[in-house]
Automatic annotation (TrEMBL):
This is Alkaline phosphatase. It comes from the Bacteria. Its EC number is 3.1.3.1. Keywords: Hydrolase, Phosphoprotein. The keyword Hydrolase applies. GO terms for molecular function: alkaline phosphatase activity. Pfam families: Alk_phosphatase (PF00245), GDPD_2 (PF13653). SUPFAM superfamilies: Alkaline phosphatase-like (SSF53649), PLC-like phosphodiesterases (SSF51695). Belongs to the alkaline phosphatase family. It comes from Maribacter confluentis.
Length: 593
């Protein structure tokens, strides 16, 4: 259901987030020192590579130092012949490649030998996607125009060149990074160094030429910094890693455009030693600590969630696996028993277990379930269903019809048919549900690809507000579970824009619950997650721009602990570190049951 949702809206949320700009080219520095010269860089899809050459007895040899020259390491064998092969195989039809030839011996004689050698490879010199650039020892600037059209030069100065013909022969501007900073690529550039580095890049760009630093730190932090600064060609000794990272920035760096208005609670009933009348449990599916952190930073440094003071952590292991799924985690929270992955409301032997809604209805509570997933999804069905496998959706639909729930709001599930025959009155709009006087009601959430993002992120809050209103009007104690399911969905596809937008949506629902608790003064609100999804980290960002960079380590769940927050009467009971199935027992304890 969750992945179908993503497909149906065409990753609409992510498209509405502001992505990162087009990345720079990646240059394989001293490429000949790689385990597989040329071919490794070519396979990594670099746009530029560097080869040092010495003229030795009339032959162009490749090495870093003259003393390292070996008989087989010729420019032709290591680079020109492989490049010829790639051209003949059509491998440069849709990509460009710059070959930077760093001359280490006498400029004039070595360059003449290079030109002579290259004339034997017209398929290279005439190729529209190949650029040949001479660096290192070069002839006088004014003589650049004397060399063939296929020879361009690396200009290692920011002094303007006034001769237009000479400027045409300059391919790019390159300078040593160490002239301007000793930064090692960890942390950040100092303000003084940032000014110097920015200044030299601006001078190079004023010449309308691409710019490259050599002697640079080589790390993700450095690559991101150089990208942000507008460096056009990034030097690296890790071509594959650098290409992968730079290309990921368009997806891994987003600037948030939707926000949750932070509500500061009154705290008047928080942690008081009095049994609450009502319980609202909000579950962010896949919403680990880093997901919360990313939304907090993207929201200007705070959420309503981060205003809460009673905080703990849950371990999430299932009965049969190191890493839980949503079914086992939802069942642990709803029944108080650890079970196997994929099981819904059954123990590890497949026997049905009473869940919170069933227990509380028998104690005079009204109960409801809200989810941005389908109603037969793993988390919502854990609060009414009993099946040994989460994919038994037709059975779960039957469980819903037979359930004691008074309310459900979720995405439409095809398996749920003729729900009205089981006593649920389906309400056309969620807004109208809040004032309904029917005994049992249901409503479908409409997640359409045409829904503007600001309206999209309000849907769970609207459902939560109206769900609370409906249950409150029954004048009995109530229990409501509301799930932000799509945080998990976007975690599975490593989409940080979607994670943040759905986390903002979840925080808006939290705000509705906390506001009600402040007004009611007799409601306990609990916020947690079933597990973390994606192995998310956030190495960098910019709070002023609401920008977050994400790095995911998996497309699956992880076994990391998840936070639990509580607000209202007896909320202090939820502090500490404990297993997720203890949430069930703590809820019954604070209710005096």
């Amino acid at each position: 259901m969750k992945l179908n949702f993503l497909r149906s809206i065409g990753f609409f949320i992510s498209a509405c987030m502001v992505g990162f700009a087009q990345g720079p080219k990646v240059h394989s520095h001293n490429d000949y020192k790689q385990p597989l010269p040329f071919y490794g860089a070519f396979a990594a899809d670099v746009q530029s590579l560097e080869v040092d050459v010495f003229l030795v007895e009339g032959v162009l040899m490749v090495a870093h130092e003259l003393g390292e020259v070996t008989a087989t390491a010729t420019l032709e064998r290591l680079y020109l012949q492989p490049l010829k092969e790639m051209v003949e195989r059509g491998m440069l039809a849709d990509r460009t490649l710059q070959v930077l030839i760093d001359i280490k011996t006498d400029a004039m004689s070595t360059l003449n030998a290079l030109v002579s050698s290259l004339r034997n490879y017209p398929m290279i010199t005439d190729h529209e996607h190949i650029t040949l650039v001479v660096s290192g020892n070069r002839p006088p600037l004014a003589t650049y125009v004397d060399y063939p059209e296929f020879i361009l030069f690396d200009y290692q100065s920011t002094v303007p060149v006034t001769n237009a013909a000479v400027m045409e022969k300059i391919a790019m501007v390159s300078l040593s990074f160490r002239q301007f900073s000793e930064w090692n690529g960890k942390g950040r550039l100092t303000a003084a160094d940032l000014n110097k580095v920015s200044g030299v890049i601006a001078k190079a760009h004023a010449m309308n030429k691409p710019f490259r630093f050599w002697a640079t730190p080589d790390s993700k932090t450095a690559w991101k910094a150089f990208t942000d600064l507008g460096v056009d060609v990034i030097n690296t000794d890790m071509p594959y890693e650098c290409v992968s990272y730079v290309r990921s920035l368009n997806n891994s760096v987003v600037r948030n455009t939707v926000f949750s208005e932070v509500y500061t609670p009154s705290y008047s009933t928080d942690a008081i030693d009095k049994a609450p009348k009502n319980v609202i449990l909000l579950i962010g599916d896949g919403n680990g600590l880093t997901q919360i952190s990313s939304a907090t930073l993207a929201n200007g440094g705070a959420l309503t969630l981060t205003q809460l003071k009673q905080i703990g952590f849950l371990t999430t292991r299932s009965a049969d696996d190191f890493t839980t799924d949503s079914a086992a985690a939802g069942t642990a929270i709803s029944t108080g028993q650890k079970t196997n992955n994929r099981a819904i409301g059954t123990d590890k032997d497949g026997n049905p277990i009473p869940n919170l809604t069933e227990i509380l209805v028998d104690k005079g509570f009204a109960t409801g379930v809200i989810s941005t997933d389908g109603i037969t999804g793993a988390t919502p069905s854990s609060f009414y269903g009993h099946r040994t496998d989460r994919d038994m959706e037709e059975g779960l639909a039957q469980d819903l019809k037979a359930s004691k729930l008074h309310l459900f709001i979720a995405q439409r599930s095809d398996e749920v048919k003729a729900i009205e025959t089981s006593g649920f009155q389906m309400i056309n709009t969620i807004e109208a549900l809040g004032g309904s006087t029917y005994d049992k009601v249901g409503a479908w959430m409409d997640y359409s690809a045409n829904t503007p993002l600001p309206q999209h992120v309000e849907k769970l809050a609207t459902a939560t507000r109206n769900g609370i209103a409906f249950l409150q009007h029954k004048n009995t104690p109530f229990f409501l579970m509301a799930e932000g399911a799509k945080i998990d969905s976007y975690g599975h596809v490593n989409d940080i824009g979607g994670v943040i937008a759905e986390s903002i949506s979840f925080d808006k629902a939290i705000t509705e619950a906390i506001k009600f608790a402040d007004k009611d003064k007799n409601t306990l609100v609990i916020i947690t997650a079933d597990h973390e999804t994606g192995g998310l980290t956030i190495p960098q960002g910019n709070m002023d721009r609401h920008e977050v960079e994400a790095d995911f380590t998996t497309h699956d769940h992880t076994a990391t602990m998840v936070p639990i927050f509580a607000y209202g009467p007896m909320s202090h009971e939820f502090q500490g570190v404990y297993a997720n199935n203890e949430v069930f027992h703590k809820i019954l304890k604070v209710l005096g049951l």
